[in-house]
Protein: Trypsin-like serine protease
Organism: Streptomyces evansiae
Amino acid sequence: MAHRARALLLTALALLTGGTLAAPPASAVIGGAPSTYGPWAVRMFVDGVPTCTGTAVAREWVLSASHCFFEQGQAVADKRISFRVGSLDATAGTLVHPVKGARRGSAEADMMLVKVPPMTVRTAPLASEGVHTGQRVRVYGWGATCEGDENACQSRVLKEADLRVVRPDDPRCAGHAGPGTSDFCMEKVKGIPAGGDSGGPVMSVAPHGREKLVGVFDGSDRESTAEAGEIARQRKWLRGVIG
């Protein structure tokens, strides 16, 4: 049975209680295609090992999924985390490290903002309007490219998958997205994000330079459906942190 890489606890709860539940496995693009564009895409590493994807949303802020920053319910220390920015190749670009103690987690969604030294990359503009049923979106990430051991097939190059937003009450997404949650649900069009793509940008489909960040990928069944935290619902929190 396909597994769903999904955060089960809100960031605020984890931070306040120091919970002991294990974080879900980080979710990469199975199928899809290599991307030729993605200046705002960020590759995340823990102890030098690729784990998640993120987005540069301001010169000093990277946005990713909260569950990427926890292991066995414990926060991953800042000194263990690094990011590569400015390249479609996960082994190239500029290496940056978090500013100590400067993480900000959403109390409502699987999202984490991490402050870093100023980056010289194009940042992703935040969508001000929510997604709608039938909308085509594009998910980017360096995650798993196979259906087996996701750790054995992490992509070196940035990949993209095209998906379509489905109704909030679609039964395929029950318990993971839809009414009463901070996520929206998507169905596969071409490719599906999986392990290593968690935290990656979900962008509107538009000419290069005109796309907007509409979501933060946080889980999939690795077969046909995926979920993402909706940027428009978290815009007030995001702006309150990054300005």
Notes: Residues 1-28 have pLDDT under 50 and may be disordered. The chain has two domains: 11-24+40-123+235-242, 136-233. The longest strand covers residues 49-58. The chain is about 10% helix and 35% strand.
